[in-house]
Amino acid sequence: MVPSPFMSAQCGADFYLKLENMQPIGAFKLRGAYNAVAALPDDVAGVTCCSTGNHGRGVAYAARQRGLRAVICMSNLVPQAKIDGIRALGAEVRICGTSQDDALRASQDLAADQGFVEISPFDDPHVIAGQGTIGLEMLERLPDMGSILVPLSGGGLAAGVALAAKTINPDIRVVGISMDRGAAMYHSIRAGHPVEVEEVASLADSLGGGIGLQNQLSFPMCRDLLDDTILVTEEEIRDALQVLYFQDRIIAEGACVVGMAAILSGKYMPPSGPIGTIITGRNLDMDLFQRVISGQDVRLGDYLLKGKRYDQ
């Protein structure tokens, strides 16, 4: 946990960054994946999962530690840098369709056909418990924290952090934040049940994908435990990436800065007490990052994100 003086000045409260980008795989996903793989019996044929990148890297890392075969199913929207990182850990990558839902179905088929154990990136009790240790550590460091801003995708991180934090302090506010294009959990909570959304390219690519129409854990937990959910635009994510880089000297993925984007855009202001957010990972396309940081135009699928510097 490190303080961000710039963000503290912006929101009028002490603002802290939980640096999960410094994990061995470059992302918080190692916590849940390692916890789930460690709980498996010795006689499993292998492990599989669907992933937008970081969960797959965590499963690959944990599987290698146990000497298990790992097959990671991903959509064709996943950046090449994340695919290469998983293969470097010894796992097989299969590109399956155009969405996280396609990758999920492929992972489930592999588990059914070959006896692999599927490890959900979010709808698994061991995964949720592993991610929840972030909430424990944040409250250990700052017992009087008033708000935690959590990047929200399939909900494993948000569910675990919210459960841990609210068990310690029921009055703490935990807010889930997504990009405004393809935010599956946000729209599912509003619909009252899991829904599919169109998955599109985004600076926050790690937050893409569905939550699974048969979601049993992360959806009801996010629905019941999150105090609010907020959407931020690609422009607001761009500005927050630049702030994190120029003000805090940190390189991270677009998904990491949605909490900062909510503050900088005025969409969330903490009611009281210190505020924290989770810098979830650093496994990004460095060429894309360089263009964003230098204020160049960026093409995200059919969307053109115009270049701009936040300080200009």
List the topology elements:
Elements: E1 2-3, H1 5-11, E2 15-19, H2 30-38, E3 47-50, H3 54-66, E4 70-74, H4 80-88, E5 92-95, H5 100-114, E6 117-118, H6 125-141, E7 147-151, H7 156-168, E8 173-179, H8 184-191, H9 218-225, E9 228-232, H10 234-248, H11 258-264, E10 275-279, H12 286-293, E11 298-300, E12 303-305
Parallel strand pairs: 2-10, 3-4, 3-6, 4-5, 7-8, 7-10, 8-9
Antiparallel strand pairs: 1-2, 11-12
Helix pairs in contact: 2-3, 2-6, 3-4, 6-7, 7-9, 10-11
What does the model show?
Helix content is 41%, strand content 16%. It is of the alpha/beta class and 312 residues long. The chain has a six-stranded mixed sheet. It starts with a strand and ends in a 7-residue tail after the last strand. The mean pLDDT is 95.
Would you identify the regions where 5 or more consecutive residues have pLDDT less than 50? none
The largest sheet is: 6 strands, mixed
How would you describe the shape?
globular
Number of domains: 2
Overall helicity: 40-55%
CATH class of the largest domain: Alpha Beta
Widest sheet: strand order? 1-2-10-7-8-9
What fraction strand? 15-25%
Mean pLDDT: 95
* CATH level 3 topology of the largest domain: Rossmann fold
Q: Rg, please? A: 18 Å
Span from first to last CA? Answer: 29 Å
* Secondary structure category: alpha/beta
Order of helices and strands: EHEHEHEHEHEHEHEHHEHHEHEE
Oligomer: single chain
Total count of strands: 12
**SS field, number of helical segments:** 12
Just name the CATH architecture of the largest domain.
Answer: 3-Layer(aba) Sandwich
Q: What labels describe this entry?
A:
312 residues; alpha/beta; Rossmann fold; 2 domains; six-stranded mixed sheet; four-stranded parallel sheet; 16% strand
